[in-house]
Design brief:
The protein is mainly alpha-helical and 376 residues long. Helices cover 53% and strands 6% of the residues. It contains 14 helices and 9 strands. Helix 5 (131-142) packs parallel to helix 7 and helix 6 packs antiparallel against helix 7 (181-199). The termini are far apart. GO terms for molecular function: DNA-binding transcription factor activity; RNA polymerase II cis-regulatory region sequence-specific DNA binding; zinc ion binding.
Length: 376
């Protein structure tokens, strides 16, 4: 590799590099990242194990050695103007004061944690209640899940993805055309717990302070859950997900754009807001995320990589520079793991495949940002 000195894996963007440096360059260009030089003679040397020490110098060396940004195919989002956050969506699963639950230093097995949180239990998930789900999410994040087999980050997350899908039906799925706001709120709260449980399988996430975990969860849980549901929908429905506009929403499917919304006041502002939201948001999800996913037929490990990359590229909240550096180290690590997975399974054309996944992450990130800014 002309960048770090490790063995190269071929020509990437015009230069012989290893897969990790190719993935770094691709991510740097597609995500339009910016870093400052650490200004350290040792850390800026980029020799093998120190290749991630200074990302500014690493990218500059990529350019100096001849890697071409124009060889990375991607679509830049030109929409830079955002509106105010829609108040109805802002109130969705709003949080009250933080429960007095502290981080536990004790580790629990997968089975013990699943039993403790019992995320399909009979707690009060009524439309009016909000404290129960908040306390449950805090409780989930206070547990530390054991890693007895010393699984690497990508495969530990894959284990979590398998567990949350254990009860997902893959056939005889009923398609819903109408649902109530009450059932929708119930579903959101259950999925919030499910998403929290999945996030605990990110080893990088486990190392955060409890307050940082909650900050990240509040910011991105909805988009993370929706991405996971789109992945399930594509797996189950295939082309029909886009052509017939069906998607897994609850345990069953929903027919997008044809839903009815029932409540005590069918003509309420809330109902109209949901109708507007579903049409615009769902159309973006289908066209920009689901459609390019269909021909890829991702494995569970690739889906884990896609979800983790999305989770750790969302940086629209204020956390420490140490946290941001660890996030980037984590992205490098799972990129290396994915390429090793490809090598072990003799996957051909893995670089174009990885690029397509990064483009999907970038599309989902744009949708997340538009959603947060009230564009739907």
């Amino acid at each position: 590799c002309k960048i770090c000195g490790y063995p190269g894996h071929g020509v990437h963007f015009g230069v012989i590099t290893c897969r990790a440096c190719a993935a770094f360059f691709r991510r740097f260009v597609v995500m339009n990242l910016q870093y400052s030089c650490v200004k350290s003679e040792v850390r800026c040397s980029l020799d093998r194990i120190r290749r991630s020490s200074c990302r500014h110098c690493r990218f500059q060396k990529c350019l100096q050695m001849g890697m071409k940004a124009d060889k990375v195919q991607w679509n830049r989002d030109t929409n830079a103007h955002y509106t105010e956050i829609d108040q109805h969506e802002k109130r969705e699963l709003s949080w009250t004061s933080e429960p007095s639950i502290s981080q536990s230093n004790q580790s629990f097995s997968e089975t013990e944690v699943a039993g403790k949180i019992s995320y399909y239990d009979d707690l009060d998930f009524s439309f009016q209640s909000q404290n129960s789900i908040q306390e449950e999410v805090y409780r989930i994040f206070s547990f530390k899940i054991e890693n007895p087999h010393s699984l690497k980050p990508l495969f530990k997350f894959t284990e979590g993805l398998k567990r949350i899908r254990e009860h997902q039906k893959t056939n005889d799925i009923k398609i819903e055309f109408e649902f109530s706001l009450e059932s929708l709120a119930l579903h959101w709260k259950k999925q919030a717990k499910n998403t929290a449980y999945l996030m605990t399988h990110s080893l990088n996430f486990q190392n955060l302070e409890l307050s940082q975990k909650m900050k990240k969860f509040r910011k991105c849980w909805k988009s993370l859950y929706r991405l996971e549901r789109i992945l399930v929908s594509v797996e189950i429905f295939g082309d029909d997900c886009v052509t017939k506009k069906v998607r897994i929403q609850f345990e069953n499917g929903i027919k997008l754009f044809y839903q009815g919304y029932s409540s005590s006041n069918p003509k309420s502002k809330c109902s109209f807001s949901l109708s507007r939201y579903f049409k615009k948001y769902a159309n973006r999800l289908l066209n920009e995320v689901a459609n390019p996913l269909i021909p890829l037929k991702l494995t569970l490990e690739e889906k884990s990589f896609l979800i983790l990359t999305f989770l750790w590229t969302l940086g629209n909240f204020k956390l420490s520079m140490t946290y941001l550096n660890k996030s980037n180290d984590f992205l490098d690590e799972i990129s290396d793991e994915l390429h090793e997975y490809y090598r072990m399974h003799r996957v051909e054309n893995c670089s174009p495949r990885a690029l397509k996944m990064v483009k999907i992450v970038w599309a989902m990130k744009r949708i997340h940002e538009d959603d947060a800014c009230g564009n739907f």
